[in-house]
């Protein structure tokens, strides 16, 4: 099974900050990597897929990069509605594992 | 509107059974691969099971293999998860996200989830 790790597990940031979250797979996943945003009591929302492709309707302040085993989610200018938990997920092979999540809260 | 609505959750005793349903609307259900993903209270996301658009290919997480059965009825636009021999650690919100080639099989649409509580 492919294990996914994320760092940091949590961070505090201010509106307007640039935020970067990293995700590492235990083996190469050929960019089969998605990022989701989840707010309390709500279902996850797809932000990016194929490591760097923005899902329709997602603001352009979200971007993704990476290859092989190492991937990054960047929020260029944090907005109030971005305070949430972010998960990476590999869908390269089953089981489709998720990272443990990164909680972004208000500084 | 593209929508997935999960139902069937509830309180069940350890060792009991439950059948979850996921009703799809607003898209051609038979063309999409589907999954079940769960989230224990205060915890992260755990993929549970996958079924191909035709139902011919199925995968399970090791944690549920032999106890859970995924199925679909494309004529009824519905996905199911039969859960048997339930354990306390199966307590979670269960979601039924779809996967699409448009997003290269990432999970683009999620329902609101249905809560399953396994407790005596």
Model description:
The complex is a heterodimer of chains A (107) and B (120). Chain A is mainly β. Chain A is built from no helices and 10 strands. In chain A, the strands form 2 sheets. Chain A has a 6-stranded mixed β-sheet, with no helix packed on it. Chain A has a 4-stranded antiparallel β-sheet with strand order 1-3-8-7, with no helix packed on it. Chain B is mainly beta and 120 residues long. Chain B contains no helices and 12 strands. In chain B, strand 10 and strand 11 form a beta hairpin. Chain B is globular. The model of chain B has no long low-confidence stretch (mean pLDDT 97).
Itemize the secondary structure elements and their pairings:
The complex is a heterodimer of chains A (107) and B (120).
Chain A lengths: L3 E4 L2 E4 L5 E7 L7 E6 L6 E5 L3 E2 L7 E6 L2 E6 L8 E7 L11 E5 L1
Chain B lengths: L2 E5 L2 E3 L5 E8 L7 E7 L5 E7 L6 E3 L7 E6 L4 E6 L8 E4 L2 E2 L7 E3 L4 E5 L2
Parallel strand pairs in B: 2-12
Antiparallel strand pairs in B: 1-3, 3-8, 4-5, 4-9, 4-10, 5-6, 7-8, 9-12, 10-11
Report the radius of gyration of chain A as a whole number of Å: 13 Å
Outline type of chain B: globular
Q: Estimate the mean pLDDT confidence of chain A.
A: 97
Q: Helicity of chain A, in percent? A: under 10%
Largest sheet of chain A: 6 strands, mixed
Major sheet characteristics of chain B: 8 strands, mixed
